[in-house]
């Protein structure tokens, strides 16, 4: 039997905030920390916006922590740490680009994604200071068989079916985008580099789930209701991937939709068992497809 789903934990009440502070939360997360200003500036023709904007945004977020409602301060400092760490990765990647040109695709994937340990550590340092509630941050395995809140013909559906189905669809959909470019040499290279991009997927899934969901839940969960928090983290995740694969509006919509599933997984299981597993699975499919489709034939 699936573990019953509790819509709200006992005793949970959101901290009352003035309207300006509530708006400030959305602006800080989706409008600033997501990298949206830099993305818009790059689209407008400012090529160096990706280097110039993040430090300014980090300073703005840190400064806002002093003047906005005290309850919002932990969130703003978490975002500051995340933005700062990701900016260092951007700068380091640009400086190392000449060295990485000759590297195999899998090795470059590991180098770039492995660096995400930095924003993870910086953000964790802020969280250690503020000690968010364990129920909010949900840094535990959680309940694999948690109830999804859905039922078919009177039978309750738990997350084993939801997670397996979503993982299968994401894998098939991702691989289908590059299957036309696959060749024997590419498939051979993808298999031979499997341990390397598996490590990259482990780090990336861990870092992104922590930065985009668990950490935000820990500091923003006390400020808003369940539905608003799911919408906030999903929008954050979607907008951040505007330059991902695929990019643009389609990338935002697909990543945002996937983000809703991952946010619901945390909310229902009260842990990282399904959101991390699904993110890792998606990363493995993306990395496999990238390597298999770009390897030279012959």
UniProtKB/TrEMBL annotation:
One of its GO terms (biological process) is CAAX-box protein maturation. The keyword Protease applies. Pfam families: Rce1-like (PF02517). The keyword Methyltransferase does not apply. Keywords: Hydrolase, Membrane, Protease, Transmembrane, Transmembrane helix. GO terms for molecular function: endopeptidase activity. It comes from the Bacteria. Residues 192-284 form the CAAX prenyl protease 2/Lysostaphin resistance protein A-like domain. The chain crosses the membrane at residues 25-46, 52-68, 75-93, 105-128, 161-179, 191-211, 223-242, 248-266, 273-295. This is CAAX protease self-immunity. It comes from Actinopolyspora xinjiangensis. The lineage of its organism: Bacteria, Bacillati, Actinomycetota, Actinomycetes, Actinopolysporales.
């Amino acid at each position: 039997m699936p573990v019953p789903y509790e819509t709200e934990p006992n005793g949970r009440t959101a901290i009352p905030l003035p309207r300006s502070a509530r708006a400030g939360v959305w602006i800080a997360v989706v409008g600033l920390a997501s990298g949206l200003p830099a993305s818009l500036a790059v689209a407008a023709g400012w090529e160096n916006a990706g280097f110039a904007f993040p430090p300014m945004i980090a300073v703005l977020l840190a400064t806002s922590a002093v003047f906005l409602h005290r309850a919002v301060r932990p969130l703003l400092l978490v975002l500051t740490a995340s933005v700062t760490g990701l900016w260092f990765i951007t700068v380091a990647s640009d400086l190392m680009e000449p060295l990485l040109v000759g590297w195999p695709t899998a090795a470059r994937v590991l180098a770039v994604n492995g660096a995400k340990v930095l924003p993870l550590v910086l953000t964790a340092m802020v969280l250690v200071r503020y000690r968010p509630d364990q129920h909010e941050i949900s840094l535990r395995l959680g309940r694999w068989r948690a109830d999804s809140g859905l039922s078919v013909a009177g039978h309750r559906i738990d997350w084993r079916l939801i997670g397996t189905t979503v993982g299968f669809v994401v894998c098939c959909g991702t691989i289908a985008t590059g299957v036309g470019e696959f060749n024997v040499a590419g498939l051979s290279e993808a298999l031979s580099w499997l341990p390397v991009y598996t490590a990259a997927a482990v780090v990336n899934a861990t870092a992104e789930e922590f930065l985009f969901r668990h950490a935000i839940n820990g500091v923003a969960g006390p400020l808003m209701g369940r539905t608003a928090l799911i919408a906030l983290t999903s929008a954050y995740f979607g907008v951040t991937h505007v330059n991902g694969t695929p990019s643009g509006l389609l990338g935002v919509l697909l990543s945002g939709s996937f983000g809703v599933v991952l946010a619901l997984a945390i909310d229902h299981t009260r842990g990282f068992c399904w959101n991390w597993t699904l993110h890792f699975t998606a990363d493995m499919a993306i990395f496999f497809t990238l390597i298999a489709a770009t390897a030279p034939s012959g």
